[in-house]
Amino acid sequence: MQSHVPIIPQKTADSGQSAQQTSPSITTTEPLQLQNALADPTLPLSQSHILQLQKTIGNQGVAQLLKSRLQPVQRSDKWIPINGNGSIQRRIAQNATTWLDGTAANKQWIKSYYNSFFLNEYKRLLEVTENPRADLYWEIKELYEVFLPIYNNALFTNDNWDEVVTLLDALVRKINEDFDEIEDSSRYSNVAEDSWENPKAALTAVSAINFIAAPAGPSALNMPDIHGINLSDAIAVFPAALIRQMKDIYAAWENSSFIDERTEAEVGGGTITSKIPGSLRSWHTNVQGSLPTAPGGATPAKAQPLEDHYTATSGAGAAIVAAGPVGYAEYTGTGIMNDIHNSKIVFDYKQGHVFLTLTHYKLWSQEDNGPSIKDKTAGSGTESAWYYINMGG
Q1: Cα torsion for 356, 361, 362, 365, to the nearest 10°?
Q2: For the chain, where are the alpha helices, taking DSSP H only?
Q3: pLDDT tens-digit map of 32-46
Q4: Dihedral (C-alpha) 341, 91, 327, 364: value to the nearest 10 degrees?
Q5: Which 8-state DSSP code applies to residue 116?
Q6: pLDDT by residue (tens digit) across 221-264?
Q7: Can you tell me the distance from the alpha carbon of 177 to that of 171, in angstroms, rounded to the nearest whole number?
């Protein structure tokens, strides 16, 4: 299917507002209601109207028609944020084309990318309280107004995904151009207002999620099965900093890179117990066997930068004998208020699997008075210390 260069509505010379594009010429014998809607761009086109139009002008024609009906975005030199929370826009780590990684664009993949990687960052853009480049902000907003009806139409018809990808990539490029230099020192903060109060509160919240199957069970006998969680379900329950950290780890890996929030001194000194969320820790070797067997085989090319950095700047933990990483990279986690101990992320960088513990490897059981955290040995608790996070779900 042919892709089209995204159309950004042009500003009129006198007002700075978007100029209306000319509606494509169409001929149809559909009912009067549709004819009226076509004559007046302020009247909505229903999904039944769109189906009727597809029969006469095709999907590309419908896409061009939706663009032509866009109303001008009312501009101003400044904008009133949705709320006053002082959100800071962050760079979007990968565009839709990178996310697809050669896979043909389809509803499942694009919807997953849009919801998991793009939408929250676009919302954060709308919440930014200061921006010295207001013109570019309005360009982004206008481009999104072009994108949204085409995306919604693609969801309904399950077609025209190439143009959706092109528009998404253009949006990501514009957002990154505007906000690439803005930093947020609290990106993975464990003192944010939405942090869980303690590990028991975290376990209680996560237990309400509908679990899925993990890709593999624990390597040791008598260890509880690992529950799986779709990222889309986690977003509704997990603290935002924890979601960002998992997404950043995964997105960096997809782009042949890695994250490591250790200070320069910590990296240079080979620190393996950094308290900074997002920091790489000691080589994780799954000593307790509570995770699946460490992945074997060659390290994928996109994981090589992470493995090289991890090998050179980290080391084995106390009382652990290891010559180097085994395919698992451990990070200091976040999401629990003022906690630097219990939340840990282990990333299987050979297969792209994310595992999260909220109890620092300890098993636990659900009892009458709530979650009861046990110890790391098999049989001590009925619930696994780990959750598998399906980053594509």
Answers
A1: 30
A2: 32-39, 47-68, 96-100, 107-113, 119-127, 134-157, 161-179, 199-206, 231-235, 240-254, 264-268, 304-313
A3: 566 666 666 666 666
A4: 30
A5: I
A6: 889 999 999 999 999 999 999 999 999 999 889 888 888 988 88
A7: 10
> Distance between CA atoms of 296 and 226, rounded to whole angstroms?
20
Q: CA 195, CA 358: separation in Å to the nearest integer?
A: 12
Amino acid identity of residue 366, one-letter, is: Q
Listed residue (193, 197, 203, 188) closest to 332, CA to CA? 188
Q: Which amino acid is at 371?
A: P
324-368: pLDDT as tens digits: 899 999 999 999 988 889 999 999 999 999 999 999 999 999 999
- pTM, two decimals, is 0.59
Six token digits for residue 158: 């399950």
Mean pLDDT of 292-311: 93
More confident site: 125 or 70: 125
Residue pair 329/314 in contact by the 8 Å Cβ criterion: no
Say if residue 57's pLDDT is above 50: yes
d(CA 247, CA 244): 5
Give the single-character DSSP code of 302. G
Burial 98-112 (b: 16+ CB within 10 A, else e): ebbeeeebeeebbeb
Name 142's Cβ contacts closer than 8 Å, sequence gap at least 6: 8, 9, 18, 73
Q: How far apart are CA 348 and CA 132, in angstroms?
A: 41
Name 320's Cβ contacts closer than 8 Å, sequence gap at least 6: 282, 283, 285, 287
Is residue 367 exposed (0-12), middle (13-18) or buried (19+ Cβ within 10 Å)?
exposed
Q: Which residues lie closer than 8 Å to 131 by C-beta, 6 or more apart?
A: 137, 178
Identify the pLDDT of residue 15: 36
The one-letter amino acid at 100: L
Q: Is 237 exposed, middle or buried (0-12, 13-18, 19+ CB in 10 A)?
A: middle
What lies within 8 Å, CB to CB, of 323 at 6+ separation is none
**327 compared with 120, residue with greater pLDDT:** 327
Please, are residues 293 and 216 in contact by the beta-carbon 8 Å criterion? yes
CB 62, CB 54: distance < 8 Å: yes
Structure token digits, residue 388: 């598998």
Distance from C-alpha of 208 to C-alpha of 176, rounded to nearest angstrom: 36
Instruction: Please state the φ and ψ torsions of residue 361, each to the nearest 5 degrees.
Output: 75, 0
Q: How far apart are CA 59 and CA 328, in angstroms?
A: 46
